[in-house]
Amino acid sequence: MRILYSLCFLSMTVQAQKIIEIIPLSKTINETSGLEYFNGQFITHNDSGGEAALYSFNQEGEVIATYEVLNAKNKDWEDITQDDSHVYIGDHGNNKASRKGLKIYKTKWNGKAFESLGKIRFRYGLQENFEKRGMNAFDAEGLTAAGDWLLLFSKNRNTKNTEVYQISKEIGDYVLYPKKSVPVNSLITGADYNATSKVLALVGYGFDEKQYLYRVKDFDPNTLNFDALEKKEIPSRKDQIEAVKVNDAQHFFVTSEVVKIYGQPELIRIEWK
Q1: Nearest Cα residue to 269 out of 83, 60, 62, 66
Q2: Tell me: the pLDDT tens digits for 12-47?
Q3: Which domain holds residue 51?
Q4: What is the CATH number for 152?
């Protein structure tokens, strides 16, 4: 089968931006790997092997509530996103490209906990080899709801592009093929789309250990227009940034999991300069 998808060729200027504030987070969320805003507070989850739970924290970094995710397990949760009616949790970490059973939990708040209504299961249509290997194209960590779609962004260690996949929000089984391949020259670890400002944001890091924030203004989730993609370096810190939340076109929140040099996770507020 011959698969056709778009390869974007982009010209991006890399510049540093301004960190406004760094907020230490509770070590309860030392592997924070996704970021959303729910009921007036941030919510996050831990990475692989953590509890099937979402943690609510305030802008002082204090965990104020822990919410169980019913009918779910945390195999390798990588990102979280929401639309007007549901919260979606991406259990699709696949570092060695050997994992089958990739899924997204479609959940609904019941007043006390998040209840999984079912799984959006998927596999990559171009993947034939499931032997463990570090350099691969079938890992993905960025997930965001955008219009009628869920958008999944690959962490392609072979090319340092990110493949963009459109996924239905309906519970079921799907075979995914990339719609776009975007030359970001880094490994994408998080994504967020703000429907009000029409801004898409991505975060990632390069093999040079530098951290990057990407922005697309006037993003269309149907046409996947990346012509206006901008890239800026996050001022040099030894963070491991895993998630991003768009506040508006100029302001973003990102989270970093525990790194030895700082000893605790962090919420970082960034202004695009």
Answers
A1: 60
A2: 656 667 899 999 999 999 999 999 999 999 999 999
A3: 6-271
A4: 2.120.10.30
